[in-house]
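Entry 14. Structure prediction run on the chain below.
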Amino acid sequence: MQTYLHSVTLRSEKCIGCTDCIKRCPTEAIRVRNGKAVIMNERCIDCGMCIRVCRHHAKKAITDPLRTIRQYKYKIALPSPTLYAQFKDIQDVNLILMLLKKVGFDSVYEVAKAATRVTEMSKPLFQTIDKRPIISSACPAIVRLIQIRFPSLIENLMPIMSPMEVGARISKYQAEALGYRSEEIGTFFISPCPAKATDVKKPLGIEESYVDGVISIRDLYLEMLCYLKETSTETIEQIQKSTFDGISWAMSGGEGGSLGLNKYIAVDGIENVIRVLEQVENGTLGEVDFIESLACIGGCLGGPLAVENSFIAKSRLKELNKTNLNEKRTINRLTDWDRLFSIQWSKTINSIPVLKLDEDMIKAMEKMEQLEEIYSHLPGIDCGSCGAPTCRALAEDIVRERAHIEDCIFMLRQRVIEMAEDMVQLSRKLSSPTVGHLK
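Output returned:
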């Protein structure tokens, strides 16, 4: 079974064994066993849904602490445009970027700027892909979802690097031009999303990530607030290089809109994405050229590592656009930095088989028959009381010897009834007069 490094982890001491997380996990990656949740590594896509729904804060995302940047001589911040919408009453992006330099970064390369670069560089590529609809690959959680649940749609993925990765590459080239050695340069993505942390450790479509660390927006927010008062009284440094087209990638519809396509849809929220992908797989979606699919409600603004409510954040980004009405909405001519590398994937994306019951094909088929037999006896109401999200998932766990059929409360009740009836029959036999006593 393929092993992954995951950002989403469990705090077992806080878990009370409720079933909220198993019911909402889109890939059935969580079970409750012995009163505690268990995350199945081969199924987890780090979407963060369990972080959102856990009322007891038993799920958390592992990201890099701010002190990690001290390991590098030249420290580059790669802020997600989601960061711009986290601060109340700040409508100047330059002030937010100055705060990043205050907390310890030497320079900033906006991922929003990289997003506009990706848009311009991907337009010619878009015309060469025959498969329709093309599915955005910007959200790593969606790419992993397709690997696990919709492997037939892997060929539909747009085979390009994310703006995060493009920004990391360009900013490192620029730092090297200033005289810094590669090992002295550290690039850190400021993220609303645990899937990005996993994507850096186990990148999709490329051999190695140029991002050296991922820092949560939630972790960095308070640090930045500490410097806000003094920074707001200083002369504002003109750091911003991004346009609103790039910033809008943080919202659902931003990527598709910047591509200038007519026949595209933007879907946010992983449960909504699953329904659309099912339609694509079944051939019932209709005529669509491009699907922008984001795991979080509202897009990256709704990431579980963000601070602000996604709807308020969206309103703030729209206000930010009003303050930049005179700003050019199209990217300037591509620079030499952009031509140093191709944004296309260099590595094939493969499916991840999660229902591999046995390495031996014959045994696997036998176990599949056993699974179907067990499933036929289960109630089929998918209540989750057994610790598995569905009755079929429980049947699979039983075949894998990770659960027992009595974990189902209905089967347990039936078993108790059968045992009680056996006890009654035995009691009657023991209490009946003995036949044929010797006189």
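The chain is about 40% helix and 10% strand.
Filed with the rest of this week's runs.
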